[in-house]
Specification:
Layout: E1 2-3, H1 8-17, E2 23-28, E3 40-46, H2 52-60, E4 78-82, E5 88-92, H3 103-119, E6 123-131, H4 138-150, E7 154-159, H5 166-180, E8 189-192, H6 201-214
Parallel strand pairs: 1-8, 3-5, 3-6, 6-7, 7-8
Antiparallel strand pairs: 2-4, 4-5
Length: 217
Amino acid sequence: MAQAEFSAEELAQGDALFRSAWEFVLSAPSHEFLPPMRGLEVAFAGRSNVGKSSLINALVGHRGLARTSNTPGRTQELNYFRHPRRDVFIVDMPGYGFAQAPKEKVAAWTELVKGFLRGRQNLARVFLLVDARHGLKAVDEEIMALLDTAAVSYQAVLTKADKVKPHELARVIGSVEEKLATHAAAYPFLIVTSSETGLGIPDLRAATAQLLAERGA
């Protein structure tokens, strides 16, 4: 497994995909509020406070599209964003694991996440976000096992890479790559990002554009 590398053409295609103004569509607090399964969905999953909303904002070039907070568990619903001219959706998922909320509410969010990952036939890929300061945790591996079982393709994305020293970042990258190599549904390229510095954002855009092209979207 290795970090993703893209050609100038692939990077340009990614930039073109996200140059348009993506739009908020809806928030689904439970399964019955999910939209019909049409087009393609790309979901962003990860532990609470891993930086999903910040990364999505950096990806689409709009700081206010996805709500961000320093409080773990702020995203409590499945938030859908749509490309203005294509049936392509980004899904910002509730963080799993620790959250500053009652245990029963955290359990409900976790079940919402798991049910979504098991049941969306038009889910093209899950970008599994991993905090570069902490690496993979047991709860991440639980989600990875679920994705393996459901045969849902997923790709690991390290977030907050600017928060760790280079030698520590290299250690975390190696550890994550080693673990991902043992999972059947894991995509074989890791993307290292920072929503603050823009590191890896062009690569993430290119990976998304490449995926959609492969799926005929």
